Amino acid sequence: MINVEALPTEAEAADLLERALRSGLDPESGPARSVADVPAGQILLMPAAVHGYAGVKIATVAPGNRDLPRIQGVYLLLDGRTLAPIALLDGVALTAIRTPAVSALAVRHLAAADASHLVVFGTGPQAWGHVRALCAVRPVERVTVVGRGGTGEFVARCRASGLDASAGTPDAVAGADIVACCTTAREPLFPGDLVPAHAVVVAVGSHEPGAREVDGVLVARSEVFVESRAAALREAGDLIIPGVTRPPANLAELVTGTPRTGSGRPRLFKSVGMAWEDLVVAVAAYERMKG
Questions:
Q1: SS3 state of residue 50
Q2: What pLDDT is recorded for position 260?
Q3: pLDDT tens-digit profile of 4-27?
Q4: If we measure between CA atoms, which residue out of 28, 36, 73, 35 comes closest to residue 55?
Q5: In this structure, which topology does domain 100-274 adopt according to CATH?
């Protein structure tokens, strides 16, 4: 098992993902996620092959868990030529790095250079990972936390890291430069017409076609970006439920194209989480461990 200390930081992982996309990785070409419903929840299988390696994440989602995490998992890294297993990683720790890293990569290309006010929905590991990752790519000074529980502790954690942090309500998005939605919500978290035109919204909480964190008003107002059009149109309820009238740009097109920071419309990045992202970060941890 690879020690979690070998994992890159969120900012380092964002650089690795950008490098992979710039080297020609096509996010539209990867295998689809497999989802098996079981009595306690779901088992997810996420295979990928990139640059001499292959791998698969096996993740479980158990909504009824009380004493154990809702999401658990393991990552099996394989030699790309022989498909021989070469390493195991903690799947939860891997996801906790890779998801905010993907958001940070998108925000690096979408947010204004002086974006300083972050509104984060959620108080769990993904919310904290997003605070860390987004502070690494933009000069965030102020964080407004909107949560259902643990908000005070989360605010204190942000303050301990040097940020001006406070608890807020959903209408705080009206003053945001960046909004990060990191929840298990199945219905929109805030009215989409409140988001200012200069803001960037990232939504990462769901990969289910029947769940969403943002409403159709925001989708209609925004320039929309996704990791992969194919994956988003299979899994992103945020886009599927209201319908998307314009084909969204994918992450590779965003990274290799012209940065978009002044369109006069909000920018929405909807992430569902993809297997190639896990593999890129897992390979970096493996190669760091090998020295």
A1: strand
A2: 67
A3: 889 999 999 999 999 999 999 999
A4: 73
A5: Rossmann fold (3.40.50)
